[in-house]
Each structure stands twice: as C-alpha cells, then as structure tokens.
C-alpha cells in the first residue's frame, strides 16, 4: 500500500511538472527560433537570454525575441496577441515584423491589410522567401491564382523547389482549402 501511494505521488508530480512548464509552439515557417519558442501566458513574452517567460513590458527583452515570440503566438492561433506583441517593438519596421504582422492580420480575416504589410516587408527585402509564401497564400485566398503563381516562381528563383516556402505555397495553390 505504501509503495502504491509513493508511486501515485511520483506520477502526479510528473504530471504537475509537465503542466507548469511553458508550452512549445509548432514550427512552420519563421526562423528556427520561432519553431522552438515556448508560449507564455497572456501578457508575457519569452526571453531567450533568461530562458523564461517575463512580463511583456520588460525592457530587457530585445526586439528580435519579441518579433519571434509574436510569430510563435500567431502560429499558435493567438493572432491578436501577436499583433499586440508587435506593437511593443522599438523598431516595428523590420522585414520579419512586417511579415508577421501581415500573417496575423490575414489570419484574422483581414486579407487586404495583410497584403499591404507583406508588400512593406518585400520593399525591405525582395528575396525574403517567407513573405513571398504568405503573400502568395493571401492571393490564393482572394482567388488571384495568377499572382500566387508569380510568387511561387519568385520563390523558386530564390531557394528552388525543395525549400519549405516553395512547397507550402505550391500546396496552397493546389489545395486552397488547406490554407
């Protein structure tokens, strides 16, 4: 009996430990950091240097971490929180921040607004394949497959047909319901 109680308590402590740790978001297109960034409770941001969640108002968290965390939130379906995180950037005009703002607004159903953010990102770096993928997906949503295919061909010239951005946009064009 004593052994059963000890085993039960040990098992319960493992379960509690698992639930007390930050959740890790699935990847899918940001930097490698975004694929492994944990999600924090609302109002907090992941500090990669401290390796923990901190208040989003913390001045110790650099824009790069805030940008990657915004993408992590967006990939987790927390689009409005992602936009709010991007609002805390000292420099919101980086190719990544503009792209992720476009992604979050598009996922909120504001496709035209998303396209405008994607175009601002492209103005900073025309060879940024990830923004071209998302812009192409926005064109698919709007039924503008010719424009989506133009983005696909540009991605092909940037990174070939085996890169994730090419494969993802190709699939979106072939199966628009998957977006």
List keywords for this structure.
single chain; 179 residues; mainly alpha; two-stranded antiparallel sheet; two-stranded antiparallel ribbon; 62% helix; 7% strand; disordered N terminus
Overview of this structure, please?
This is Tetratricopeptide repeat protein. The protein contains 9 helices and 4 strands, in the order αβαβββααααααα. It has helices spanning 2-20, 32-36, 63-75, 79-86, 95-107, 111-124, 129-141, 145-159, 164-174, and strands at 23-24, 38-39, 44-47, 52-55. A hairpin with a 4-residue loop joins strand 3 and strand 4. Helix 6 runs antiparallel to helix 7. The longest helix is centred in the first third of the chain and has 19 residues, at 2-20.
Widest β-sheet, arrangement of strands:
1-2
Kindly state the percentage of residues in helix.
55-70%
Distance between the termini: 54 Å
Specify the overall morphology.
Answer: elongated
Class by alpha and beta content = mainly alpha
* Uncertain parts: 2-32
The portion of residues forming beta strands comes to: 5-15%
């Amino acid at each position: 009996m004593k052994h059963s109680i000890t085993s039960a308590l040990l098992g319960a402590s493992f379960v509690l430990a698992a639930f007390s740790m930050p959740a890790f978001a699935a990847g899918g297109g940001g930097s490698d950091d975004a694929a492994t960034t944990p999600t924090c409770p609302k109002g907090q941001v992941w500090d990669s240097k401290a390796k923990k969640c901190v208040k989003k108002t913390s001045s110790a968290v650099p824009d790069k971490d805030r940008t990657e965390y915004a993408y992590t939130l967006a990939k987790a379906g927390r689009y409005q929180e992602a936009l709010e995180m991007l609002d805390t950037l000292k420099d919101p005009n980086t190719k990544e921040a503009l792209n992720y703002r476009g992604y979050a607004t598009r996922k909120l159903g504001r496709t035209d607004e998303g396209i405008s953010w994607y175009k601002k990102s492209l103005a900073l770096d025309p060879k940024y394949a990830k923004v071209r993928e998302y812009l192409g997906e926005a064109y698919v949503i709007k039924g503008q497959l010719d424009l989506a295919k133009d983005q696909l061909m540009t991605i092909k010239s940037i990174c070939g047909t085996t890169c994730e951005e090419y494969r993802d946009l190709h699939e979106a064009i072939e199966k628009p319901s998957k977006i």
